[in-house]
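Write out the bound-state structure for protoporphyrin IX containing FE.
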Amino acid sequence: MPDLELHPLNATLIPLLGEWQGSGEGAYPTIDSFSYGEILVFGHVGKPFVAMNQRTRERESGLPLHAEAGYFRPQGDGTIELVLSQPSGIVEILTGTITETEAGVEVDVSSVGVHTAPSAKLVRETRRRYVVKGGTLTCDFWMAAMGEPLTHHLTSSLIRQG
Ligand code: HEM
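---
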């Protein structure tokens, strides 16, 4: 594939591009707490979005856990849209802000729509925060699900690879 020039709208997301690996902790009022390993890859194809691919594994067994794929769509005015889909039958559309910082970038988004397949667990609302500080990416996730109000579900800390 030829070297593709970055679309100018993606400029603020440059600190996210590449592969990240690390570990995280999960909790929710309705389940037992858990630990996981995570791989996140952000890439571009010269168009005005950044593609995201996430895989996680259970810490002890190494068995696959949650996964998701989607697109970060920067709008050029400091705002951003995310569209994400999950094999658990959940799709999220979120909007929010991109903030450039001295050490990287922060993306903070809240759902404008969450849709669940008929057999999926019920999720009404989500919020996500991605913070790049140098070679570290911190991800946090909140959800209103299973009748609970918006509550923290996940935090992970990932290191840039390569
Ligand atoms: C790093 C990503 C994630 C990991 C490792 C993860 C892991 C888990 C685990 C281990 C459970 C408990 C067992 C189970 O029900 O499977 C769980 C429950 C759940 N997760 Fe996540 N999850 C992740 C992301 C998400 C996301 C993005 C959503 C929603 C958009 C979500 C929604 C839920 C729901 C609704 C439950 C069920 C809670 C219940 O049954 O009471 N999770 N998650």
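---
The mean pLDDT is 97.
Residues 101 and 133 are 8 Å apart (CA to CA).
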